[in-house]
Amino acid sequence: MRKSNTPDAHGKCIMRLIFYHVFVNLPVMTASYPAFRYMGLRSSLPLPHWSVVLSQMLFYFILEDFVFYWGHRALHTKWLYKHVHSIHHEHATPFGLTSEYAHPAEILFLGFATIIGPALTGPHLITLWLWVILRVLETVEVHSGYHFPWSPANFLPLYGGAEFHDYHHRVLYTKSGNYSSTFIYMDWLFGTDKGYRKLKALEELEGKQS
What we know:
It is globular and about 60 Å long. It is built from eight helices and no strands. It is mostly helical and 210 residues long.
């Protein structure tokens, strides 16, 4: 599929996101609320202790990254990439909004990774909102194309960041690797970051020689 970052492509991205949020995300959120209530979601006082919120956030990020890695890796098989995931890869150099630019089936498929943690723990509604906000901020940041001074990648050794994910978008889908959503250890453990690490080593060597 031809990759394009033209103004027309940006407009297409924005319109598709509006459509998805109204006709995919909103119905799913509305339909899933009773299920979350059944799993223990509450909205009443007292608010959860900060240690509970912090431990749940950590659990959600680790579990989401694990589930996302395998789901994303599956989307890079030939059939699923051609018919589903290639839409997300229309942008060779992504920008923030492309984080949610995807086929509806992919939104539901990978969205499972985001909701499985809260579904298992039955958090307070405030905790759920905080998790969704942090997850959206994280995926927008890694799709932004910029390595900001305040990026968690500057402070957390296992955090991927924009540079890590940019490589994924720029390489042929069968060789891209870097499938994780947040961290880098899953790709390291299963050897799907070898191309990226070779490129970084080459850039470091060229920097020393210049």
